[in-house]
User: Fold this.
Amino acid sequence: MRERVIGAAQMGPIQKSDSREVVVLRMLSLLDRAAAQGCDLVVYPELALTTFFPRWYMEDQAEIDGWFEREMPNAATQPLFDRARAHGVAISFGYAELTPEGHHFNTSILTDRQGHIVGKYRKVHLPGHVEYDAARDFQHLEKRYFEPGDLGFETFDNEGTLMGMCICNDRRWPETWRVMGLQGVELVMLGYNTPSVNSQNRGEGLSERLYHSELSVTAGAYQNATWAVAVAKAGVEDGFPLMGGTIIVDPDGFVVARTTGEGDELITARCDMDRCQFGKTTIFDFARHRRVEHYGRITSQTGVER
Assistant:
């Protein structure tokens, strides 16, 4: 048995006025609780340090850049790395990254239990739009503020477990999961900030949104025989509702733990990584069953063609 005790650290709303330092104090509280419950890995949401700023239309580049981190760790987040190292707990969390070359990414990182960054992922499937859209109930401007990720869907051997990351909208694309599955991934970590309502379809509310999120994660986990941890930032941020629905999913696609509210909340699960092997050697034994000669369309086109 290769058991990991994993904590999914859902976070409640972060208001526009909240400083990084205040947010990190909340993350530290969740980390302490996780350590007390024996966790050796804690996963936080997408854009865990700030409000979901892509809902705001901005033209001033200096204002935009103020939401981004130029280094990691930095002064605000160093206490999180230090506490994780002291507890011997690995962490993964998302933030807005501004590179030295001036590139802007929606990023997640992964550390080992000594606090060293051992993996980085930059969001590939950016939803939303670039310019202000008056037809929407609220804006979703990720395509305005971020570039598509340039690191692909890599996996990282972190203390005996093969781990991968994706972010929010990535979970809805089967290609995300299969690329990591083809590397033998055993644990997929993802954070999200998902509105409770669809800005382009008022008839799609919270229950439908939660269903589609859970469907995406459970299907991805099952079809690639991997554990998955999907962690929300939830609640009402500056008047805009984000859904919760944080879950931990086993390699058979079953939810083994879930949050019950939309605030700061920790759920944990004991996850035996060896449970991935049955699916990987039977129905999802890719080497035996995949027929790549018929899959050319997946990488040769984007839009629908006859």
Summary: The longest strand covers residues 90-98. The mean pLDDT is 97. Residues 66 and 98 are 10 Å apart (CA to CA).
